[in-house]
């Protein structure tokens, strides 16, 4: 690991000021960034920790009924909250206890790993990613593998989740990393169904529109049985072929619907 300075601001304003330097890097739970730095695959002159900002921590239900989660809130805290059972279940299966007690929802969404769990929940829920500068709809936020709508110096201060009528997340675990080989989050709202798939596509998390339309008409596993996920953009590696991941996406969707029902 290369030498660097460390800053731990106590307010969002101070964090934004510290990040104004071109060589500064925001630090959430550090579950991806620190191992990368230890291997000298990344370098920064200053780390700006967001974990000391009280206004970015905690969970509440807003006046509009949305679940409001501070960007510096840990996976363990999300898992312990009972307001959105589908999201809590997802958070409780991220990594291991050490990861869940250090990793943060804002850090995960900012990193946007193509196999991470939270992107599927945010996209399927129609969440709003709030930053120090603006509000970003989940449909506009995710822009490809490790790519998001965040600008330089912009940090995730809060994530707002509409709470669906029913939801479920099914994850086919890659046993070495505990990431999703394929994960599917299904959320049923009064005005429709949203289905988001993570771990499968080379473009990162995506919505499966065909399944959404079928499930809006008939929210049952049978509605998914006749469908097929196109494999053209699927990841193909030593853990699974593109066709295998496409098949898993369909299977996990069916399981999520059955569990939610």
How does this structure look, described?
The structure is a single chain. By secondary structure, the protein is an alpha+beta fold. Among the domains are: 1-48, Uridine Diphospho-n-acetylenolpyruvylglucosamine Reductase, domain 2, CATH 3.30.43.10; 166-259, 2-Layer Sandwich (Enolase-like, domain 1), CATH 3.30.390. It is built from eleven helices and 14 strands. The chain has helices at residues 12-18, 33-38, 75-80, 85-91, 97-102, 105-111, 118-125, 138-141, 209-217, 222-225, 242-260, and strands spanning 5-7, 24-27, 46-49, 59-61, 67-70, 128-131, 135-137, 142-144, 147-148, 156-161, 166-173, 180-189, 192-198, 206-207. A five-stranded antiparallel sheet has the order 4-5-10-6-7. Strands 11-12-13-14 form a four-stranded antiparallel sheet, with helices on both faces. Strand 2, helix 2 (33-38) and strand 3 (46-49) form a beta-alpha-beta unit. The termini are far apart.
Helix content: 25-40%
The fold-level CATH name of the domain at 166-259 is Enolase-like, domain 1
Instruction: Tell me the series of helices and strands, N- to C-terminal.
Output: EHEHEEEHHHHHEEHEEEEEEEHHH
Number of strands: 14
Gyration radius, in Å: 18 Å
Q: Biggest sheet, in brief?
A: 5 strands, antiparallel
The name of the CATH architecture of the domain at 166-259 is: 2-Layer Sandwich
Mean pLDDT: 96
CATH class of the domain at 166-259: Alpha Beta
